[in-house]
Amino acid sequence: MSNLELEPQETACGDAPTAARPQALAPRDVPLGGPRSMTVRRTLPHRHRRMVGAWCFVDDYGPTDLRGQDGMQVPPHPHTGLQTVSWLLEGEVLHRDSLGSRQRIAPGQLNLMTAGHGIAHSEETPPPEQRTTQRLAGVQLWVALPAASRSVAPAFEHHPTLPVLDDGGVAVTVVMGALGGSASPATTFSPLVGADLALGAGARTALPLEPGFEHAVLVTDGATVQVAGRSVERGTLLYLPPGPSTLPIESPGSARALLIGGEPFTERIVMWWNFVGSDHDEVAAAREQWQAADARFGTVHGYAGGRLAAPALPNARLTPRGRTRDA
Ligand code: MN
Q1: What residues have a C-beta under 5 A from ligand 1, the ion?
Q2: How many CB atoms lie within 10 A of CB 298?
Q3: Distance between CA atoms of 2 and 84, rounded to whole angstroms?
Q4: For residue 315, what are the contacts with CB-CB under 8 A and spacing of at least 6?
Q5: Extents of the domains making up the chain
Q6: Looking at the whole model, is its pTM more than 0.85?
Q7: 325: CA distance to ligand 1 center in Å?
Q8: CATH of domain 20-262
Q9: CA of 240 to the centre of ligand 1 (A)
């Protein structure tokens, strides 16, 4: 996924006090671009919160009926300083990147791209004759890399199977990090967790949490879910501060949800367009190099269409700031 806003806001993150209370973060609709393309619901960054642990970007989309639609069409674009986490609820997406990866992803599988020093990729719904389904729903998340790992070599991982735990009528897929003694094989660079929760009607459980992590739950499908005693509607991201060692969840109807969490990200970073850097100059240099087709980002082969141009930088210098809006 690319940030396709025409005037992306600078988002400075890191090094802020942890919010003491849960926050319900409502999504905003963001068009992905193109006349027959999709709209996504964005809950991070949010005007009330920039990050949850190292998680710095959360889009969810669909379910979409793709008949007569292009679906997801995100032309080649660059990333630095982050990982992209692609997770589908329905349908399929084809990923191509400048390392030469070409990987279709299906529900239950993880596509994880570590941008590190720099990479370019495209994401697309296959053309109608190559589709195996006409439905599409999923989430796209970014994880900020800490300074020590921000410039690692780019890498792409596809994990066709992930550990699934069954707990009180909830099938828990461990996508990133570890939960309940099961660990995802995905590469991480800071202590964090990401898990998909498939909740049966009447499901009731208490998920084990790492008390030092902050967490958030996004209801991605179905009915309202009770999370830590609060009603969470579909599309809303409920932020939960560190402390508890369990997370009570009850679902009257069947639903899907995503749990993300991690150690509060204490470093200050700048996030702008598709880049994470430690300061304005790093981000400005990455933008310049992308615009100049510099070898830093390589070339994505096989995408039917041109590459995305970077938007103009804001007039003001990007200032690294706290991970919540109060900081
Ligand atoms: Mn992307």
Answers
A1: 1-2
A2: 19
A3: 10
A4: none
A5: 20-262
A6: yes
A7: 24
A8: 2.60.120.10
A9: 27
